[in-house]
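Recap quiz, item 2
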Amino acid sequence: MKKRASLAIGVDVGATGLKAAVVDASGKIVLHARCATGGDEGATEVLDRIALLVGMLSERTGAARVGVGSCGLVDPRSGIVVASTKTMRGWAGTRLRDEVAARTGFPVAVENDGDAAARGESTFGAGRGAPSMVMLTLGTGVGGAFVMDGRVLTGASNMAGKFGHVRVGTEGRPCACGAVDCLEAYASAWALRRAAGCEADEVFKRARRGDRAMRAHVDAMADALGEAFAVIAHTVNPSRIVIGGGIAASWSRMAVRAKRVFRARAMKVAYAATRIVVAELGADAGMIGASLIAPPLHQTRR
Ligand SMILES: [Zn+2]
């Protein structure tokens, strides 16, 4: 099939699921495919699966350029996965950009999956039209990204916007990063499971039915988010904070309390300028965002 320059393939490498989509210039998904990531089988297996999905999508649509958003810490400049969770065996150190380019023959760019999701929301989702935006992804952990004028700020070591690890609590709750009282220790699915002993969905369901202990966990999460909003408003002063991830579906259960804490903790000019909204692209944000970094067809980086 003839190559079509207007189309790009966005790949979302999650710790469990691998998703890829052909995205057109307006952010619409034309065709998509998915499979298990296979992270426990090693980096070569994951790279082979990425190449398989990309090849299949390209054959059917003519898309021939690729953007990849991956879990772990990814350096977009070197194209290398800098760090990763243990569940992705051997993923840290993988030359992600060059390996995918070698397997597919297409130009490839890579970034962190949270940054890709934020880019997607900023361009085509809940951050549309906002000059500056912070995205908080409330999933297993708490991902964060700061987007300014369409650019995702990465910082000196790709930690810019990683608000999941700002200190917001006083209970001494351990965080996955080794520190205590990070936002992630209060406002992630992992933290809820650890504190409440059941899955996030169940915590919200029981809290809604009037279970006081569960309500307290939801309140602690709302308080932590309110504190984090104040930190965010006073560091980067975004016009919008976008709440994404699996827990975003329960945002309405926390919004009033979180905003009350935010208002109490932030200066009025900072609070008043920040709109808090729920993400619009759902699980597609990462693929759509990754498609946006795909290099143009004439440029092949090796
Ligand atoms: Zn932490």
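The mean pLDDT is 94.
DSSP finds ten helices and twelve strands in the chain.
End of item.
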